Inverse folding.
């Protein structure tokens, strides 16, 4: 997945969308562990981490387009996520 041709958006509908910038269209809709609004996310290469209003964080494999792990990490909303590599 070339990050120069991909955009990612998250929504209050608890979904994440991958966008193909060159084609100007959505290439995938990721749904699953989040039941509340997604408040933040960050990604590096094919790994994305997202957090929602209920305190759930999910780790996604973007190549497989699925969540590989979800955990309740906070009592309140996840307000910020930052990946370091």
């Amino acid at each position: 997945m070339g990050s120069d041709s991909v955009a990612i958006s998250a929504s209050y509908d608890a979904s994440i969308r991958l966008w193909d910038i060159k084609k100007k269209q959505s290439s995938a809709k990721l749904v699953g562990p989040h039941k509340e609004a997604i408040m933040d996310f960050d990604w590096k290469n094919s790994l994305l981490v997202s957090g929602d209003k209920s305190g759930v964080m999910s780790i996604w494999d973007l190549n497989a387009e699925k969540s590989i792990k979800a955990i309740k990490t906070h009592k309140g909303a996840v307000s910020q996520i930052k990946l370091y590599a």
The mean pLDDT is 93.
